[in-house]
């Protein structure tokens, strides 16, 4: 198959409508969202290596040429879909950031929002956990960039807690943020995979014990 793709019309369509139930990044277009949802479903069934571009395109209702025109390769497609998933999560976290006057309550709301995202896109969470710590990995550079963006949001929330409460200064901030970040994924996936009877609120409470331990009573 030739690597040269025919010209295709731009897919920089209008931003997702405000009537949509979930917040999504303004630059997201409908085609990328369909590809994201189709890819996550297929990857959840067989893993990233077991899914072909043809299958992703068919499940999303677009042509294979459209996928290659916009992303170039399967590897680039997965990288862009990882970015897309993180963009969705970031928008949701930033939308509620600082809404509550109590910074601990604000952090709890953000953890709950992250858990809700994982409930909506469980295969994204599994892809993240399975590939993020693979060294060397095909998408290591992408994961490093996206991880830094998510940790920055968590760091801002931790900073507000530290400004509003007396905290344990011996705790290394980078490690604290990494612990919260990791706990969200591990606790969320553990509930989905092994303990579906647990509520989201129970999972959020478990993650928040990290922050309550950081605050000095």
UniProtKB/TrEMBL annotation:
Residues 1-31 are annotated as: Disordered. Coiled coil: none annotated. Keywords: DNA-binding. Residues 29-89 form the HTH tetR-type domain. Residues 52-71 bind DNA. This is TetR/AcrR family transcriptional regulator.
């Amino acid at each position: 198959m030739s690597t040269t793709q025919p010209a295709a019309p731009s897919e920089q369509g209008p931003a997702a409508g405000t009537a949509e139930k979930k917040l999504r990044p303004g630059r997201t277009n409908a085609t990328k969202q369909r590809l994201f949802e189709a890819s996550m479903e297929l990857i959840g069934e067989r893993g990233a290596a077991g899914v072909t571009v043809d299958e992703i395109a068919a499940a999303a209702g677009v042509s294979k040429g459209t996928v290659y025109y916009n992303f170039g390769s399967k590897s680039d497609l997965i990288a862009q879909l990882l970015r897309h998933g993180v963009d969705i999560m970031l928008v949701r976290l930033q939308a509620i950031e600082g809404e509550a006057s109590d910074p601990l309550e604000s952090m709890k709301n953000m953890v709950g929002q992250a858990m809700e995202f994982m409930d909506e896109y469980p295969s994204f969470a599994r892809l993240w956990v399975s590939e993020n710590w693979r060294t060397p990995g095909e998408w290591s550079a992408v994961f490093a960039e996206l991880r830094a963006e998510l940790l920055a949001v968590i760091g801002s929330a931790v900073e507000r807690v530290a400004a509003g409460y007396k905290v344990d200064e011996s705790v290394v901030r980078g490690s604290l943020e990494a612990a919260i970040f990791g706990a969200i994924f591990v606790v969320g996936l553990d509930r989905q995979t092994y303990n579906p009877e647990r509520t989201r609120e129970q999972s959020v409470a478990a993650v928040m014990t990290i922050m309550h331990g950081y605050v000095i009573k």
